[in-house]
Amino acid sequence: MIISVDTHTHSIASGHAYSTIDDLAKAAQKRGLAGFVLTDHGPSLGGAPHRYHFGNLKVIPKVLFDVRFYSGIESNILDKKGSTDIPLQYAGNLDFIMAGFHEMCFEPQSEKVNTEALIAAITNPLVDAISHPGNGAFPINIDAVVDAAKAYGKVLEINNSSFRVRSGSKKNCQMIAQKCTENGVLMSCGSDAHYHTDVGIFTEALTIFDEANANPEMIINSSVENFEAFIEKRKALRKEALQSLK
Ligand SMILES: [Zn+2]
Ligand SMILES: [Zn+2]
After folding, report:
1. For tag attachment on the chain, is the N or C end more exposed, with fewer CB atoms within 10 Å?
2. pLDDT band for position 171 (50/70/90)?
3. pTM of full prediction above 0.90
4. Which residues surround ligand 2, an ion (CB under 5 A)?
């Protein structure tokens, strides 16, 4: 399995990450990646950028230091209805939109409530992927979440930083990768780099994909072609959804 695009990276704009976009791009080039997605945290997290940050990403060249640059956000799930802090006015132009649980924005609750919130986020037409669903601090019903991801064509992330910073993630990610593979559900693989030296590091996640016998075709960022086909489809669907909100 090869991962060509890192779908989860943070720059200094996130407030608790320490590399510039250029640092991230240079690291991506050094690691031999074809591209990376900048997914700074949504505005509700302490220290995260203002929504204008997400509106102005268009000024960044599409290719930086020979790697492709994609704009994105890791938005926050805010309540059990699955509300997020995705800035609506920019949601049609971002390349990749994730939503995930972060303690500061959503206190971990019972498995039932966490699952309800996560599934509601999956059904949100603006959300492409769920970041670190394997986080042990937020117990979920994995079967129900995988079923919802399948029904809505959404992606579940295997997050390489989780194994270091989110306890309980390994077992959960093994189950998620197994069930996604059995049921033909899309996955992504992100480094969740908060410093450039982590860009393109997927070691533990790749072991999990191997153990689950995952099909590279079902990992959206296993190739640039796969990734771009996925985001083009999702952007069109997001634009449609935004139109109907007007
Ligand atoms: Zn962060
Ligand atoms: Zn996160």
Report:
1. C
2. very high
3. yes
4. 100, 131
- Each residue's pLDDT tens digit, 172-208: 999 999 999 999 999 999 999 999 999 999 999 999 9
Q: Label residue 152 by pLDDT band (50, 70, 90).
A: very high
Please state the domain count of the chain: 1
Helix orientation angle between 142-152 and 111-123, rounded to the nearest 10 degrees: 10
Question: Looking at residue 246, what is its pLDDT?
Answer: 78
pLDDT, averaged across the chain: 97
Residue 229: CB atoms within 10 A of its CB come to 12
Distance in Å, CA 58 to ligand 1 centroid: 22
Q: What is the pLDDT of residue 179?
A: 98
Q: What are the C-alpha distances in Å from 96 to residues 51, 56, 124, 137, 221?
A: 15, 15, 14, 25, 11
Q: Which residues span the domain enclosing 78?
A: 5-245
Compute the distance from residue 9 Cα to the ligand 1 centre, in Å.
Answer: 9
Tell me the CATH number at 62: 3.20.20.140
Nearest bound ligand to CA 12?
1
For ligand 1, the distance from its centroid to the CA atom of residue 45, given in whole angstroms, is 9
80 and 47 in contact (C-beta within 8 Å)? no
- Tell me how far apart the alpha carbons of residues 219 and 227 are, in angstroms, rounded to a whole number: 9
Tokens representing residue 140 in the block: 């979920």
